[in-house]
Amino acid sequence: MNKDYETLYEEIFLKIKESDKIIIHRHERPDPDAYGSQGAMYQIIKANFPEKKVITVGKDSPSLCFLFKNKEVTEEDYKDALVIITDTANFPRVDGKLFTKNNFLIKIDHHPPLDNYADINLVDTEVSSCSELIYNFYTYINKKYGIVLNDEAAKLLYLGIVGDTGRFLFPNTSADTLRVASELIKYNFNMSKLLDKMEIIDDNIMRFRAFIFDNYNVYHDGVAYLKITKEDMDKYKVDPGEVSTGVNLIRNLKGLYAWCFAIDEGNKVRVRLRSKGPIINTLAEKYAGGGHPMASGATVKNWAELDDLLDDLAKLVSNYRKENEILD
């Protein structure tokens, strides 16, 4: 284990230990890893320090709030509170910002560290998910201080890992990821029931997924995209977060190397970029975004700028195919 991480693990644990009140945030439009990492930190702290006041905050997701629901907070709640933010790469994406500069902030994340906005920044880009990172934090602190991981924390961490690895199909799945998952399923929770709940969708989402298959476009050899307008979202009664959950539905298209969903958000177009080979996070950074090498987000001003992004994405794929001598 990296000594720098061990130092950060201990700093975080000691800060938690000395704090009477802890408020845990995640990113806007939460995915399973955001829920899993946030909820697991809550469970770990409460299981070992039941006397502490611990609050999770953030807008609930209709598809994931079966896991737990967050509470409304006020500025008064943040007085003398330690604030932990999980799975959130940059400060603008933090869901809920009632804390002030007087609060001590801890960031726990696995995205490339472009914004070290906290007082302690624990960032490990080698893990599959923030949930895997929190399990690593737990195992180190467990060996040194004997803390426990309860069944609910294990369930939430497992869900977060499953979500960010696409059920262990994505390239961010490592041997360590599988080892961690194998340890987590030893705890007392119904894995199959949990995953079934995570996959249940409403009728409007099912119909929107049919729209995805009917309307995606092949832009260039190896590149595909889908434009989703506000009218499309109104028709299917979906929001941008629900749209984003379908971004991997076209990943199995033959000959596809990179693709994106472009979602009209009124004053801007949010772009979800995905790849099966070419490194895309540097391209995302060019368009006011960032993220992982194979999964990133970007923002363009309008549909015309989206065309520029698609041109750049096509060049990226073309270069990748040449470098790897891919002829198909």
What does this structure look like?
There is one protein chain. This protein has 328 residues and is α/β, with parallel strands linked by helices. It has eleven helices and eleven strands. It folds into two domains: 196 residues, inorganic pyrophosphatase (n-terminal core) (Alpha-Beta Complex); 121 residues, Diaminopimelate Epimerase, Chain A, domain 1. The strands form two sheets. It has a six-stranded mixed sheet. It has a five-stranded parallel sheet with strand order 2-1-3-4-5, covered by helices on one side.
Essential attributes:
alpha/beta; 17% strand; 41% helix; 328 residues; Diaminopimelate Epimerase, Chain A, domain 1; 11 strands; 2 domains; five-stranded parallel sheet; six-stranded mixed sheet; 11 helices; inorganic pyrophosphatase (n-terminal core)
